[in-house]
Amino acid sequence: MSELVEIVDSLENKISKLLHKLELLNQAKGKLEDELERLKADQEITKNSVLEWEEKYESLKLANTMLGSETNKTEAKLKINTLIREIDHCITQLAE
Questions:
Q1: Distance (Å) of CA 94 to CA 13, 30, 72
Q2: How far apart are CA 36 and CA 30, in angstroms?
Q3: What CA–CA distance (Å, rounded) separates 36 from 25?
Q4: Which helix H or strand E contains 4, and what residues bound it?
Q5: SS3 71
Q6: Residue 14: strand, helix, or coil
Q7: Nearest to 73 by CA among 86, 60, 83, 64
Q8: What would the pLDDT profile of 14-44 be if each residue is shown by its tens digit?
Q9: DSSP state at residue 70
Q10: 49-66: per-residue pLDDT in tens?
Q11: Spatial separation of the C-alpha atoms in residues 93 and 67, rounded to whole Å
């Protein structure tokens, strides 16, 4: 009978240790989930910043081309032609 009590005590002890480990793992999981959400938010902010800087770069490149820079003249002409077509389209729609 004493062996049975020892086995039960041993099982209770092991279950208690497992429950404690489970609690620790759940806490670690919560911390990791919080960190993941924070990193996702940081990534979104960085992504938006990169897009903003890319737009600024393209605008600057176009401005340099219009100021007489030899590079990207064709690109500037195409952009101007596209803008003119869009304006013509808007004027046509307003006239109707």
A1: 83, 58, 33
A2: 10
A3: 16
A4: helix 2-66
A5: coil
A6: helix
A7: 64
A8: 999 999 999 999 999 999 999 999 999 999 9
A9: S
A10: 999 999 999 888 777 777
A11: 32
Distance CA 43, CA 50 (A): 10
Integer Cα distance of 53 and 59 in angstroms: 10
Which residue, chain included where needed, has tokens 């490149």? 61
Residue with tokens 């999981």: 29
Q: Which string of b and e fits 34-72 if b means at least 16 CB within 10 Å?
A: eeeeeeeeeeeeeeeeeeeeeeeeeeeeeeebeeeeeee
Q: Give the separation between CA 22 and CA 20, rounded to whole angstroms.
A: 5
Tokens for 67, please give them: 């100021």
Q: How many residues does the chain have?
A: 96
- State how far the Cα of 41 lies from the Cα of 43, in Å rounded to an integer: 5
Please identify which residue in the block is written with the tokens 């590079």: 71
Dihedral over alpha carbons 81, 85, 86, 87 (to 10 degrees): 100
